[in-house]
Every structure is written in structure tokens, then in C-alpha cells.
Write a sequence for this structure.
């Protein structure tokens, strides 16, 4: 009896699956098809784009002016063709007279499962997310100065 019931159920499910209509093409698929048909269409991604901003933060009671640059650097192949872009965020303390003596800190994320954004919104950046002691966001959501930023080194 159970075999017959299971067989009927599987047959019913196969009919339901066959009754499904094919979905409509999404705008992205349509755009891709039209791009394929138009050989003059070329999608370009600037691999040397960057944006700069300036700010000031209080670290251990001291005002620290800084400059932040975000951008992408090209990754080149053997023939000198840009094949990818590497995203970066660069923080520079701007009130230093002898930059040769400043340390260079390079921070990498922990790999898959942890976004690089947490390095910048958690400990490296002069600004951080507004969170409580347990790590939950505080309303109103936003950013605040990072009193423990490493920019004062």
C-alpha cells in the first residue's frame, strides 16, 4: 500500500513539474543577448579609478588629520594587458613631516566568509560602525570616530 501511495505521489509531482511555464527573460539576459548581437558594443571597467577624501579623528585625546584613498589597481598579464582589478583602501596621516619614518601597515581580510569591509569599519579605519559592547548596531545607525585607530602610530 505504501509503495502504491509513493508511486502516485511521485507521478503527481512529475506532472506538476512539467506544467511549469518557462520564465520570462530578465532584463540582464536580454541586454546580454543584444550585446552579443551588436559587435560594436564594448563594456569597459576602469581599472585605475580612485577617490580621495580628507578627515580628522580623535585618537587617545589627540586630533589626527588623515587622507583616505579608495580605488582599484590593475593586475597585468605577461603581455601587459590588464586582466583584473585589485580594490584597495589607503589611509595616510597628513600631519607628519618625515614620512620615511612612518610604518606601513598592510591589512588583509581573513578570506572566504569574512568581508574586507570589517577591517575598515572595525579596527583599521579612523571611523567605525556604531555598535554596543556585544557588537550589535546602535540606533541611529551610522559611523563614529574610532578612538583605537592605528592611524596615530
Amino acid at each position: 500500500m505504501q509503495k502504491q501511495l509513493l508511486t502516485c505521489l511521485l507521478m503527481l509531482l512529475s506532472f506538476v513539474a512539467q506544467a511549469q511555464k518557462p520564465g520570462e527573460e530578465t532584463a540582464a539576459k536580454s541586454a546580454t543577448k543584444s550585446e552579443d548581437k551588436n559587435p560594436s558594443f564594448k563594456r569597459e571597467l576602469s581599472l585605475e579609478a580612485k577617490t580621495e577624501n580628507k578627515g580628522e579623528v580623535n585618537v587617545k585625546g589627540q586630533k589626527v588629520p588623515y587622507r583616505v584613498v579608495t580605488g582599484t589597481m590593475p593586475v597585468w598579464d605577461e603581455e601587459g594587458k590588464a586582466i583584473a582589478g585589485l580594490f584597495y583602501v589607503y589611509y595616510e596621516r597628513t600631519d607628519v613631516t618625515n614620512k620615511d619614518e612612518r610604518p606601513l601597515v598592510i591589512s588583509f581580510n581573513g578570506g572566504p566568509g569574512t568581508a574586507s569591509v570589517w577591517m575598515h569599519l572595525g579596527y583599521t579605519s579612523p571611523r567605525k560602525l556604531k555598535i554596543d559592547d556585544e557588537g550589535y548596531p546602535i540606533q541611529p545607525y551610522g559611523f563614529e570616530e574610532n578612538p583605537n585607530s592605528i592611524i596615530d602610530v
Remarks:
- Residues 50-152 form one domain.
- The two ends are 77 Å apart (CA to CA).
